[in-house]
Amino acid sequence: MNWKLVLAILTCNILFMSSSYTMLIPFLPMYLTMDLGVSEDNVNLWSGIVFSASFLVSAIMAPIWGRMADTKGKRLMAMRASFLLSVSYFLGGIVQTPEQLTLMRLFQGFASGLWPMDLAIMTLYAPPKKLGFCLGVMQGTLTAGGVVGPLLGGILASAVGMRYSFFLAAAALFTNFLIFTFIIKEPPVDKASAKSEEAAKKPSVSPWHMPLLRNMLLCGTLVQMVILILQPVITTYIAKLAGPLPNIVFVAGLVFSLGGIAGAIAAPFWGTFGQRRGFFRAMCLGMAGAGISMIIQGIPDTLVPFAIMQFVGGLFFCGIHPSINAVLANNTPASYKGRIFGMLFAAQQVGSMAGPLLGGLIATYLGMHWVFAFSGLLLLILSMAIHQHYRGLRGC
After folding, report:
1. Is 0.85 surpassed by the pTM of this model?
2. Looking at the domain 1-186, which fold is it?
3. CATH topology agreement for domains 1-186 and 197-396
4. C-alpha angle with apex 136: 135 to 139, nearest 5 degrees?
5. Phi/psi at 38 (nearest 5 deg)?
6. Of the candidates 101, 111, 81, 93, which has an alpha carbon nearest to the alpha carbon of residue 168?
C-alpha cells in the first residue's frame, strides 16, 4: 500500500478513536448522576473510580498486546482493539449502575492498544525521510480529536442524552474495525533483514538493557504525567480566574481546549522540524517551551493572559510525543516495534494515573500556582537532561 493512503486512512482512524474517547470522559460525572442514580455527595468518588479503572489494566496488557503484534501481526491486533473497544462503548450505553460502568471501564482497559498499533503500522509504511511528518500528522489528529470530542459530546448530551454518545462511539470504533479488516494490509517487512537485525540485537533488545529506549520510556511517562497533572483542577481554576460569568461552563471548556487547538495546528510542523534538524533537538525545544509556558501560566490572576499561555503551551507540547515516537521507531528493529510502542503506551498509562493524583495533592496542600511551577520545572529539567545526554545525536 502507498504510505500516503495509509496515512490518510490512519488519520481518520485516529480521529474516530480520539474523539470517541473524549466525547464521553469529560461527561462521566453527568452520566453517573443523571442516568445511573449516583448522589451528588458520592459523584466525585465514583468519577475517580470510573475514570482511573482502565489505566491499570491497560498498563498491564499493553506490552502483552505489543508482543503479540510482533508475532501474530500488527493489523490483527488493531482489529482486536477496534472491535473490543466498540463492544465496550456499546456496553457503556446499556449499563444501569456505577458498578457496571466500572466493570465496563476495566474491560475497556483490557481492550485498549489501538494507538500503539497505529504508530507501529505507520512507522513501517512511512519512508524514512517522511517519518517525522507522518508522526506529526498523527499526533496532531489525536490532539484534534481531543478538541472535537468534548464539543460533540456536549451537544449530544444536551440533545439526546449520554447513552446515545456511547452508541455513536461504538459505531465509530466498529468502523475502524471494518477499515482494518478490509482496507489496511499488514505492513511489509523484509523477513531476511528482520531476522538478521533481530539476531544482531537480541542480547540487548530489551529496553531495560538499552539506555536510550529506557530513557525514552521514562520521558513518555513523565510527560504524560505533566499533561494530566492539571486534569482534576484546571476547570475549577479557570472558573476562579474568570469570575462570575453567566456562561462559565462554555468559557472554561473553550479555554481548556485552546491547548488542543494549538497542538493540532503545530504538530505536523514539529514532525517536519525533527526530521530536518533532529528529533532530540525537537524534543528538547518542545519540553523547554512547554515548561516555560507552564511556569508563566501559573502567574496570572486574570483569565486572558492565562488563556494566551494555554495556547502557547499547546504549541510546544505537541512537539514532544512525536519526537519520542520517532526516536523509538528509528532505534528499534522492525520486528520489535509492536512491543516497544506497547511498552510506551503502558508507560504513558502509568503517567496518566500518577498525574491527576499528584496534581490534586499539590493543589490541595500548596495551591494551584505550585502545580504549574512543579510541572514547568520538571519539563525544564527533562529538557536539560536530554540535551546533555544526546546533544551529539540527531535521533535518527
Report:
1. no
2. Growth Hormone; Chain: A; (1.20.1250)
3. yes
4. 85
5. -80, 135
6. 93
